[in-house]
Amino acid sequence: LGIDVGSEVLIIRANDVIPRVEELIKGTGSVHKPPKKCPECNSPTEFNGEYLRCTNKETCPAQVIGRLKTWINEQNILEWGESILQKTIDAGLVKDVGDLYRLTAVQLEKLDRMGERSAQKLIDVLNGHRKISLENLIGGLGINGVGTSTTKVVVEAGHDTLDAMLVLTESRLASLGGFGSIRAKALVNGLKTNKKRIEDILAAGVTIKPRVKGKLTGKSFCFTGSMEKPRPVLQKMVEDSGGSVKKSVGKGLHYLVIADTNSASSKAEAAKKLGTTLISEQQFLDMI
After folding, report:
1. CB atoms within 10 A of CB 165
2. Contact, 231 vs 223, CB < 8 A?
3. Which of 5, 38, 155, 169 has its CA 20 to 30 A from that of 287?
4. 3-state secondary structure of 257
5. With contact defined as beta carbons under 8 Å apart, do 188 and 169 qualify?
6. CB distance 213 to 240 below 8 Å
7. CB 265 within 8 A of CB 194
8. Secondary structure of residue 85 in the 3-state scheme
9. Do strands 131-132 and 51-54 pair parallel, antiparallel, or not at all (unpaired)?
């Protein structure tokens, strides 16, 4: 649209909801040009589709911290915030995920504003996340367009070991629900380019938990509304019993756990149309 700094533009509500820039009314002649060098590491940039990316994937500081944050978020390791991650990078202790699991309390103690007890606590937290699911391992790698929920689809389709995941083809993935050709290609290529990272993470002491088989194996659940028990507790109960948790109502969902099974909410109605069974929290607990 030729939009520049200080432009006057016309904005509409697309579909009566989303703000969208419709046209340029008046420009200033100061169109900003995409940088040819990364502002973080001064490496060349390149366009990947509509995204401008730094080509220095290995050592660009922004990409290093980005990979670590993605991993930490996927494993839900709340105690390890961006500040402590940055300190370990600045100290030359960590360059990638595997390095996190090789850290010692003695190394962390030497960081700024880090005491002995705090250092040991951080190490204990990491040690508590050494056994992870296959979907959390793949989802934590930061493959574009491929997160934990996407990987779960593949695991639940029977590709539930790392070896099985590594030999997947684009055509096989594209045949699974929720996978288009673009996402299938992203996962296959992402696994290839991250193979050494995966090996390094496993060599650092991270292990893949065997898939749980129990009363809820093969069944999927989505929780909505208020519950007696905290939702994370209920979701963990599903996974501990071999079931899977969905974030939203969609095709293939088996059960929607809802406070009122007679509810006429949009989510409840959508579930009914898709053939999903509505159950109460107590009915869910009875299933367990």
Report:
1. 20
2. yes
3. 155
4. strand
5. yes
6. no
7. no
8. helix
9. unpaired
Place of tokens 């930490």: 72
More confident residue, 152 or 178: 152
**How many whole angstroms separate alpha carbon 88 and alpha carbon 73?**
17
For the segment 6-51, what is each residue's pLDDT rounded down to a tens digit? 999 999 998 888 999 999 999 998 877 889 999 999 999 999 888 8
**Tell me, what DSSP letter sits at residue 256?**
E
CB 71 within 8 A of CB 140: yes
Joined together, the tokens standing for residue 119 give 């250092």
CA distance 115 to 81: 16
pTM of the model: 0.73
Residues paired with residue 257 on neighbouring β-strands, in sequence order: 223, 279
- Separate counts of helices (H) and strands (E) for the chain: 14, 10
pLDDT digit string, tens, across residues 84-95: 999 999 999 999
pLDDT at 245: 87
Element (H, E) at 164: helix 162-166
